[in-house]
Amino acid sequence: MTDHSPTPPAGPAAHLLVAHDVYKSFGPTTALCGASFAIDAGEVVAIMGPSGSGKSTLLHCLAGILRPDRGQTWFAGQRTDELRDGARTELRRRAFGFVFQFGQLVPELSAEENVALPLLLNGSKPAAALQAAREWLQRLGLEGMGQRRSGELSGGQAQRVALGRGLITKPRVLFADEPTGSLDSLTGEHVMQLLTDSARAEGTAVVLVTHEPRVAGYADREVMVRDGRVSSTDLELATP
């Protein structure tokens, strides 16, 4: 059902990405219960909370992977919860990047082909896309591993490949769900430094779901999700 509730007075255009009063349930289980959140261009925000609190569900609603049952989501001044599935898919491909906890690499593709995949889907020429992928692999400490498939990579190596895939299109928003969960401490520090450098250099906003205070320490601010609601010391930003 389309939600015709009024837009908040401040307006969604005040921020790059907004969720306003979002509800989402899975059968009888309520995952989000009136959650509101906003992030600006170039900002890194860590979403924290206990297991089952709704933090990953909030990320999926913001990214257009899930459609809220009630409430609104906005990107760059456009209402996204009302978009058709095809339009939301196009938005994710054009403006968003993703890094999930276990990488989710395509096993039939090599490391460099996995990194290049978003560019290829967007119509880039294969030679240019693969060259860009090799440059990202080098930046991530994976030089010489471009021809390896996911089964030939360690968990940490595979996650760095996934990070390169998430960043190669220079997305306006990078959604990172436990991006260092499979990495050792040293590699995790390198990955988080890369994420924050990218956000500041490219104007990329980073929505970071994590349970690790060390990882959250790289963010500009932290919000907590408990029982499907968002709490933050920045209440004026949490409401669009």
Please characterize this protein's 3D structure.
With 240 residues, this protein is an alpha/beta fold. It has a single domain (14-238), classed as P-loop containing nucleotide triphosphate hydrolases (Rossmann fold), CATH 3.40.50. The chain has helices spanning 55-62, 85-95, 111-121, 126-139, 155-167, 185-202, 213-216, 235-238, and strands at residues 17-26, 29-39, 44-48, 70-75, 78-79, 96-99, 173-177, 205-209, 221-226, 229-231. The strands form 2 sheets. A 6-stranded mixed sheet has the order 6-7-8-3-9-10, sandwiched between helices. A hairpin with a 2-residue loop joins β9 (221-226) and β10 (229-231). α3 packs parallel to α5. The longest helix has 18 residues, at 185-202.
In short:
This protein is an alpha/beta fold. It is 35% helix and 24% strand. Helix 3 packs across helix 4 and helix 3 runs parallel beside helix 5.
